[in-house]
Recover the amino acids of this structure.
């Protein structure tokens, strides 16, 4: 609590005492002090947390088209590695902190001869995040981020774009988290000028987990950049078979465009199964 606010509350308390309302005055000071102390304690605990953490889900899955007969052309392995590093504590203006994030996603054609890596997505970024606290718990955070996405190729297979994104993840309670993100695109790839038509401008979703955090499911929709009611849809179902494990058995369904940068304008319908390692509080999307 700032000294000027404390003095102001004490004056109000003394005035209430003079007016004969001692109980109200005492309660006012206790409530104010408690609220401030709880928020400060939660922020201190948050800042003492690990600086190096997971960011998005880290997973390894294999699957195919659930509608058509499986072939080497519609079956693959997909894996993702995603990390974040806090650069400061949450003591910057407005209670924010600075962080770096890096995500790499790989599409691997393991069922073809020589098992080639078909496409990569390199996604580095730098962000400013504000943790949110309410009463006696960590509520979530709001993030402003600058991201770059590229598949690292040249010539006609080169794909890249950037975005300035504003997002939020809010834990409604210990079981339900909702999130949303909107972005301003900066398309610099010569061979993907129309990528926003397929990857859209905003997204939203929700994640549910049981109280013992052994089972969960999430659904996320990305609105494509058209005037039609069309979405890229991702549904995840995950189950932790052992109490002490931090890995979950993972079932993922993707339906839409933009799953890879190389084939961003091609429709994909994929059902995959594997394992996932999830961040401590919630996954970023």
């Amino acid at each position: 609590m700032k000294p000027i606010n404390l003095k102001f509350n004490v004056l109000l308390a003394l005035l209430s005492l003079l007016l004969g309302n001692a109980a109200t005055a005492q309660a006012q000071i206790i409530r104010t002090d408690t609220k401030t102390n709880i928020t400060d304690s939660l922020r201190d605990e948050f800042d003492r947390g690990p600086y190096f953490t997971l960011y998005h889900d880290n997973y390894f899955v294999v699957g195919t088209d659930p509608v058509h007969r499986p072939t080497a052309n519609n079956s693959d392995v997909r894996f993702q590695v995603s990390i974040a590093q806090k650069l400061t504590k949450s003591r910057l203006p407005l209670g924010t902190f600075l962080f770096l994030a890096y995500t790499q996603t790989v599409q691997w054609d393991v069922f073809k001869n020589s098992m080639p890596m078909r496409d990569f997505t390199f996604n580095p970024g730098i962000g400013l995040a504000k943790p949110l606290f309410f009463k006696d718990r960590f509520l979530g955070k709001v993030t402003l981020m600058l991201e770059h996405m590229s598949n690292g190729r040249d010539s006609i297979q080169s794909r890249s774009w950037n975005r300035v994104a504003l997002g939020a993840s809010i834990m409604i309670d210990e079981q339900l988290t909702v999130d949303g993100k909107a972005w301003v695109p900066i398309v610099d790839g010569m061979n993907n000028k129309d990528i926003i038509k397929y990857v859209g401008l905003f997204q939203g979703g929700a994640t549910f987990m049981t109280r013992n955090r052994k089972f969960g499911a999430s659904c996320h929709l990305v609105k494509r950049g058209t005037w039609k009611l069309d979405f890229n849809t991702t549904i995840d179902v995950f189950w932790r078979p052992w109490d002490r494990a931090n890995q979950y058995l993972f079932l993922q369904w993707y339906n839409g465009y933009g799953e890879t940068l190389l084939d961003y304008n091609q429709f994909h319908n994929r059902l995959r199964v594997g394992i996932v390692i999830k961040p401590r509080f919630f996954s970023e999307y």
